[in-house]
């Protein structure tokens, strides 16, 4: 930013969420610039203005700072401000005068017009604005203020703990402090509020306040006990977010709240976080737009993109850029706040958006299962790896309730069949989700139950857990052929016991692990059943192993 000042940029806007450090960064930059150039700096705070205040109110705030005396009656406030700024550098050859406008977001329209007028009238002035949304001037230089790096976040937390009278030696609590910083996405204000809690709570309790699920998270209740030198908007996590939320339109608030159904995104330490975080526009449109046949809120599918960009401009949605795609997310604190607001709309709203979410990811996973072995298979699996946090969340939401547990169980089966379960980090999680879904669905024999248990059996074979694999296949046999004595099925690979294609394939792998020559006939039977079911990929795989 100092480089922009030295290059005589006309308008520089520091953008970011509340408490991210925009004001502190502006103060540091102008102090360095003034020290090196001797430039005149005028600092104007706009925080006390009412939301939506007009241009005259903004000009009055500027006048109180830049005018040495009240403007003459014959001179308008605008002209008096322009005259004062021109007098700071009458020749235009010295360093630019810096006009800092701090906290513009709630008066963005009026501030934008005043800035445009000042820049047009005074050629030797640079405006440095801090805001949660862009000003919108044609040649505006936008500078996004990022969260702290991981190392800086830990250092800030330790310093604030020391100020609270609760020092944390560097050799102690390292993992807990780092975990708190991650869960607060290295946000300076939130870290200060968390460290202040050490007066009342041990570190472990503070970490437990940062729950995995928004419903159990308690960070929004955190407040500071300080009453002096604290911006009213920064008394708590909820206060900082609520200020931006209240500036949103009704439809922006609705989209913001509905986006809480997606897994939290990440916006920490750009050196270590990949741009694959977040969800693509298609997902937001499919999940968050009003659904046909249900009460809506004016958020149609063709308006989602524009509303989403509005939320991003207000620093409520994080944008993740890559060379080929743009993704969007809510960092965890914003997701918790949005979820709380969504609950206030009633259970029907949460149910509707959750059903849309599960339906979308079930459809996408089914598409991968059908096409993973085709020409687009690599791209499909790449998408699945990026979307894994949301796929996993969708499965867990569906599997948690008896009414939707079969959908969750089907998704588990699809994860195996699509090879998504075998991607990095998915094997153990899919196994646990499948076991939970089976428990909720109950013991009633169904083709889906056998198909899914067979997938668990295959995983057990791959993991070398052969006794477990045999026990699981025994459950499949009992479901398919109750009249077959359990002790006999292992000795009858030549018989078709009515097992599903997936169970046959798992049985063939179990025999193959023991170098049993009879595995071939079981694989052949599996290939025929996969072919009959239209599962080309698994059929080819089974046929290849059979030979």
Helix content: 40-55%
By CATH, the architecture of one domain is named 3-Layer(aba) Sandwich
From the helix content, strand content and strand pairing, which structural class follows? Answer: alpha/beta
Low-confidence stretches: 269-274
Query: What would the principal axes of the Cα set say about the shape?
Result: elongated
User: Regarding CATH, which class of one domain?
Assistant: Alpha Beta
The CATH superfamily of one domain turns out to be P-loop containing nucleotide triphosphate hydrolases
Terminal residue distance: 66 Å
**Average residue pLDDT:** 88
For the biggest sheet, the summary is:
5 strands, parallel
Strand content: 5-15%
CATH fold assignment of one domain: Rossmann fold
Strand element count:
8
Query: Counting H and I runs of at least 4 residues, what is the number of helices?
Result: 23
Order of strands across the biggest sheet?
2-3-4-1-5
What does this structure look like?
- The protein has 547 residues and is α/β, with parallel strands linked by helices.
- Among the domains are: 2-144, P-loop containing nucleotide triphosphate hydrolases (Rossmann fold); 150-240; 443-546, no CATH class.
- The chain has helices spanning 2-6, 22-37, 55-66, 77-88, 108-121, 150-163, 174-183, 188-196, 203-209, 237-246, 250-258, 281-288, 304-313, 332-344, 347-371, 377-399, 405-417, 427-441, 447-462, 466-480, 501-513, 519-532, 536-546; strands at residues 11-15, 41-45, 97-102, 125-131, 141-144, 279-280, 318-321, 326-329.
- The strands form 2 sheets. Strands 2-3-4-1-5 form a 5-stranded parallel sheet, sandwiched between helices. Strands 6-8-7 form a 3-stranded antiparallel sheet.
- The chain is elongated.
- Mean pLDDT is 88; it is low at 269-274.
